[in-house]
Design a protein that fits this description.
With 212 residues, the protein is an alpha/beta fold. The protein is built from nine helices and five strands. It folds into two domains: 77 residues, Methionine synthase domain (Methyltransferase, Methionine Synthase (B12-binding Domains), Chain A, domain 1), CATH 1.10.1240.10; 122 residues, Rossmann fold. Helix content is 57%, strand content 10%. Helix 5 links the parallel strand 1 and strand 2.
Length: 212
Amino acid sequence: MAELQKLHDAIMSGDTKTAVAVTREALAENVDPMELIRQYMIPAMDEVGRLFQCEEYFVPELLLAARAMKGSLELIRPLLAASGRQPTGRVVIGTVKGDLHDIGKNIVASMLEGGGFDVIDLGADVAPERFVEAIQRSNANLVCLSALLTVTMPSMRTTIEALKQAGVRERVKVLVGGAPVTRQFAQQIGADGYSESAPGAVTLARQIIAAL
Ligand code: B12
């Protein structure tokens, strides 16, 4: 039996090798990948964030923890994406300009893929014009913006403004999320939806597409 608490501890200590090994063992034993994410991986990152805030951890520790989290996610991602495939809609997703945090965005992207969406993932630190280009090129009907820093939240507004300027705002619905983002902020910047979680993002995306 895989000792799942070890996954939590390995992410916290930035031990990619152990994180990957425990994840592989758990998946081989048919543990639900979402259980790994929800109960062990996200709480580990939350704890890392807390330790960073009280200056027990510094940027190198954050980077090591993020690398361990990513190592595990690479094994989990194909499973999430394979879980229910019929084209539902096309989504352009990215973390907004100035923001390098992409772990939550990657989980949202994987779950949307699993929910049957075609996902065009632009990565992190995505400038507004790159969102515009991707929408123009792909005929996407949904755009997902992620931000983890309070200082990059305004990039969400700038991105929505750029969509308006380029004349593509009416073609897409915009969802926003990320730890500091709130429903109220989403309304203020003229987004069409907000969710605090990846499964919530999928439900919302489905509702929005169904109403189009
Ligand atoms: C890992 C990490 C890093 C890594 C990122 C690696 C990577 N590839 O992502 C590194 C080391 C690079 C980093 C750097 C920095 N970080 Co940092 N980081 C974190 C940490 C510990 C975890 C973030 C994370 O991955 N969480 C787990 C994921 C799963 O959660 P999530 O992103 O919120 O996503 C979920 C939901 O929000 C939602 N969601 C996410 N996106 C979207 C999008 C849509 C459309 C929807 C609907 C939903 C949705 O679904 C996800 C899954 O459920 C957080 C602390 C924390 N606990 O959040 C700090 C934190 C975000 N970082 C912080 C800071 C200050 C920094 C730095 C400025 C540090 C520095 N001095 O250099 C730099 C900034 C670099 C930059 N320009 O971006 C602060 C931000 C404070 C603030 N409010 O602005 C935090 C909160 C730490 C803290 N407590 O102070 N960081």
